[in-house]
């Protein structure tokens, strides 16, 4: 059972990492146009236009 | 009726153009403008790059970005770039586009609200999963110190999460309690708070049951419903409410000074240029011209206007400059009186109670009573406060309307997503439910069943005359002249000295002869049925060019499909008997009325309603606004006047009418799904409530029941897509 002392912090840390990634994605407005982003990777043009 | 009973006129739809004027004035001098366009037909990767390329090719455009999810484009450009130019560029490239209001402030706040909910949802999801992991260990038999440790870790995750994520519920519940009402959020907040509080107490006492995971999954699932709700509403609001006014209400004084309409006084003299909209009611003092009254009356043919003629706000001056003496301004105009009618009808509509409201009204008190009964019953039977409280909390958690909270938003999100893909935007929260109850459909003619502009249908002219007519027509912006120019293929003849004779037509010289194109009475031609313009070459007898107002795409099919499904269909138009009769015959509508006034339209619909019918009104003009507002539910095309779109519950984004048939079918399906979802929620409660009351509900059972019913309800809603 001593292994829990290690495993619980590790699992919380990993979960926190996921939450951090989510917060970052939300803050950088990656959920504004999910459909458009899915289609944009199909175009040949290099997409460097900033989001309006 | 007293003034106090009137809803505020400030909020009237027909006055909605006024703030646009202020917004436009405030924008001046920025050097760079931000424009938004609605793109109802885009759907693929090629569309994205096609639209962006077409927009960037317009001089002055600094940046353009398409949002496919919202079917919009946002453009940064110089002040010199007009939305019309951009729409034209896109139309040339083959994409349908409509202008959106530049005051995108409201849209941004809507986006911010849904981002805020998404953040709370994400945090709740993260916490729920971690606590659930720890709970699995407890459920599978962890005991004593291990169990207590796990409970403490759960508490450390759950308490801050609830404090952050459940705030929207707490806030709504407080607001409801402040107003001495009960809403869905009161039992939700109570369940979350009691579950968390009880669990902390149990953990501190070393008890075996803690409901941290239940409190978190409640928060998570209900936030999910809230988020779906918010997203549907934001999408609708940002596109519909901001489809901007076509015209900004400004007037030009006779001195050349441009002033807001609000600053005008009766007696002021105004200049109305050809092609401009008449800003206020008034009398013509100088000049002759023709005016297009289609938006106000539904008449498809322009009217002659000379000194002494009465003009109304909203009409369009076509051929010659007019001097107008203001008779009424601001709130006294025809427009404002129409708005008054609309405002009265609107209040009736807002009283409609949605299915969710009705369910919540029964549900909230029932849940509280049940939990209290559980507490009182166990208290009386055992005298153990801790046990009784535990069971009451379990009852509250189990009955908490997880499935009920998701039942309606999940369905309406799926339904409105489906309709949005087909080009129909739902603006009003209860519009779908009301649409499902409709049994009678009333159409307007000009601009709704028809495109609203004439197209050349035939002529008696030889090639020479056609060439002359085309040359003359090119010189005018009169709708018939433009239709003639577009409808003839002949190369224009070399006509010289072309000049417009206001109120009559166009005159020129060709091979030494005077040639004239214009009204029948000007050229001495016979007045007849149908829309026509005449060409006289020298002294020869005038020849006629005939026009029809073309049917909107899918008009006949839509009417036929709706009739086949057993809906009663009516056609109401302000246009002449001839025009309406031929259109009714073409589309197969049996019940029609011509030359009908705006208030008569509304009265007609009220009459139908009084006879127990539920009416869907489809219309686009100012003359339809009162009717649109008094109907049970209403739809207007995107090309409609701002006031008509504002009062409508739904807006057709594309040109075709066909989505209407599908919308009614989808609305009926959606209603059925909502009722099914209530059924699922009720079944779940019928099983779980006795268990909870008997004290048999464990945290594991609560977690299982809550998740399954929520997922079932969501899956059922997804069948609509």
From TrEMBL, chain A:
Residue ranges of the TM segments: 6-26
Listed InterPro entries: Cyt_oxidase_maturation_cbb3
UniProtKB keywords: Membrane, Transmembrane, Transmembrane helix
Protein's name in the database: Cbb3-type cytochrome oxidase assembly protein CcoS
Originating organism: Kangsaoukella pontilimi
Gene responsible for this protein: ccoS
TrEMBL record, chain B:
Enzyme Commission identifier(s): 3.6.3.3
UniProt xrefs under NCBIfam families: ATPase-IB1_Cu (TIGR01511), ATPase-IB2_Cd (TIGR01512), ATPase-IB_hvy (TIGR01525), ATPase_P-type (TIGR01494)
The protein's name: Cadmium-translocating P-type ATPase
GO biological process terms held by the UniProt record: copper ion homeostasis
Domain spans labelled HMA: 33-98
Family annotation (Pfam families): E1-E2_ATPase, HMA, Hydrolase
GO molecular-function terms, A-Z: ATP binding; ATP hydrolysis activity; copper ion binding; P-type divalent copper transporter activity
Organism: Kangsaoukella pontilimi
Signal peptide (residue range): none
Main location as per UniProt: membrane
Membrane topology: Multi-pass membrane protein
InterPro entries noted in UniProt: ATPase_P-typ_cyto_dom_N (IPR023299), ATPase_P-typ_P_site (IPR018303), ATPase_P-typ_TM_dom_sf (IPR023298), ATPase_P-typ_transduc_dom_A_sf (IPR008250), ATPase_P-type_domA (IPR059000), HAD-like_sf (IPR036412), HAD_sf (IPR023214), Heavy-metal-associated_CS (IPR017969)
Annotated keywords: ATP-binding, Cell membrane, Hydrolase, Ion transport, Magnesium, Membrane, Metal-binding, Nucleotide-binding, Phosphoprotein, Translocase, Transmembrane, Transmembrane helix, Transport
GO cellular component labels: plasma membrane
PANTHER family associated with the record: ATP7, ISOFORM B, CATION-TRANSPORTING P-TYPE ATPASE-RELATED
Gene3D superfamilies attached to this UniProt entry: 3.30.70.100, Calcium-transporting ATPase, cytoplasmic domain N, Calcium-transporting ATPase, cytoplasmic transduction domain A, HAD superfamily/HAD-like
Parts of the chain that traverse the membrane: 121-143, 149-170, 182-204, 210-228, 362-381, 387-411, 674-694, 700-718
Family affiliation: Belongs to the cation transport ATPase (P-type) (TC 3.A.3) family. Type IB subfamily.
Broad class of enzyme this protein falls into: hydrolase
Location(s), subcellular: Cell membrane
């Amino acid at each position: 059972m001593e292994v829990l002392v290690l495993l619980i912090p590790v699992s919380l840390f990993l979960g926190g990492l996921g939450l951090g990634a989510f917060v970052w994605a939300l803050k950088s407005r990656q959920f504004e146009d999910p459909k458009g982003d899915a289609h944009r990777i199909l175009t040949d043009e290099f997409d460097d236009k900033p989001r309006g | 009726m007293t003034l106090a009973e009137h809803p505020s006129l400030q909020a009237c739809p027909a006055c909605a153009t006024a703030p646009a004027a202020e917004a436009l004035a405030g924008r001046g001098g920025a050097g760079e403008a931000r424009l938004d366009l609605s793109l109802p037909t885009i759907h693929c990767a090629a569309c994205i790059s096609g639209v962006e390329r077409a927009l960037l090719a317009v001089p002055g455009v600094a940046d353009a970005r398409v949002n496919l999810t919202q079917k919009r484009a946002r453009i940064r450009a110089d002040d010199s770039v007009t939305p019309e130019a951009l729409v034209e560029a896109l139309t040339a490239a083959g994409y349908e586009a409509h202008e959106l209001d530049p005051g995108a402030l409201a849209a941004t706040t809507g986006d911010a609200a849904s981002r805020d909910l998404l953040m709370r949802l994400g945090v709740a999801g993260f916490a729920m999963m971690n606590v659930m992991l720890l709970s699995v260990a407890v459920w599978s038999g962890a005991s004593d110190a291990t169990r207590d440790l796990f409970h403490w870790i759960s508490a450390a995750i759950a308490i801050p999460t609830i404090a952050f994520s459940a705030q929207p519920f707490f806030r709504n519940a407080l607001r409801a309690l402040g107003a001495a009402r009960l809403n869905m959020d009161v039992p939700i907040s109570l369940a979350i708070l009691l579950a968390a509080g009880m669990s902390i107490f149990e953990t501190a006492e070393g008890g075996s049951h803690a409901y941290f995971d239940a409190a978190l999954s409640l928060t998570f699932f209900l936030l999910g419903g809230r988020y779906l709700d918010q997203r549907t509403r934001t999408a609708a609001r940002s596109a519909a409410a901001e489809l901007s006014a076509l015209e900004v209400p400004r007037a030009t004084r006779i001195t050349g000074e441009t002033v807001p309409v609000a600053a005008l006084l009766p007696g002021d003299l105004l200049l109305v240029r050809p092609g401009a909209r008449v800003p206020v009611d008034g009398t013509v003092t100088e000049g002759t011209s023709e005016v297009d009254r289609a938006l106000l009356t539904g008449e498809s043919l322009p009217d002659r206007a000379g000194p002494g003629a009465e003009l109304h706000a909203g009409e369009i001056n076509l051929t010659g400059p007019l001097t107008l003496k203001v008779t009424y301004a601001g709130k006294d105009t025809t427009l404002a009186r129409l708005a008054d009618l609309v405002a009265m009808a609107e209040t009736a509509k807002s009283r409609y109670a949605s299915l969710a409201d009705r369910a919540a009204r029964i549900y909230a008190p029932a849940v509280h009573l049940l939990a209290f009964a559980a507490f009182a019953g166990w208290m009386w039977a055992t005298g153990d406060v801790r046990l009784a409280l535990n069971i009451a909390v379990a009852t509250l958690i189990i009955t908490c309307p997880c499935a009920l909270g998701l039942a309606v938003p999940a369905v309406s999100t799926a339904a409105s997503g489906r309709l949005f893909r087909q080009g129909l935007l739902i603006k009003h929260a209860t519009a779908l439910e009301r649409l499902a109850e409709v049994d009678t459909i009333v159409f307007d003619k000009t601009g709704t069943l028809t495109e609203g502009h004439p197209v050349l249908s035939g002529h008696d002219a030889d090639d020479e005359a056609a060439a002359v007519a085309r040359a003359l027509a090119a010189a005018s912006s009169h709708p018939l002249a433009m239709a003639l120019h577009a409808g003839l293929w002949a190369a224009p003849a070399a006509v010289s000295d072309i000049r417009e004779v206001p109120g009559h037509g166009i005159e020129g010289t060709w091979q030494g002869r005077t040639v004239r194109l214009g009204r029948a009475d000007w050229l001495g031609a016979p007045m007849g049925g149908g829309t026509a313009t005449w060409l006289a070459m020298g002294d020869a007898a005038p020849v006629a060019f005939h026009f029809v107002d073309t049917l909107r795409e899918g008009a006949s099919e839509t009417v036929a499909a709706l009739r086949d499904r057993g809906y009663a269909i009516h056609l109401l138009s302000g246009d002449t008997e001839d025009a309406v009769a031929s259109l009714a015959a073409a589309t197969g509508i049996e019940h029609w009325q011509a030359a009908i006034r705006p208030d008569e339209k509304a009265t007609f619909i009220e009459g139908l309603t009084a006879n127990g019918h539920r009416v869907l009104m489809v219309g686009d003009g100012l003359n339809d606004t009162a009717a649109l507002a008094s109907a049970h539910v209403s739809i207007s095309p995107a090309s409609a006047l701002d006031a008509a779109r504002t009062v409508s519950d739904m807006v057709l984004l594309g040109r075709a009418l066909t989505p209407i048939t599908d919308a009614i079918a989808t609305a009926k399906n959606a209603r059925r799904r909502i009722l099914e979802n209530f059924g699922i929620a009720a079944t779940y409660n019928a099983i779980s409530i006795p268990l909870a009351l008997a004290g048999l509900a464990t945290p594991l059972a609560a977690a299982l029941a809550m998740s399954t019913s929520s997922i079932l309800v969501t899956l059922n809603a997804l069948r609509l897509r």
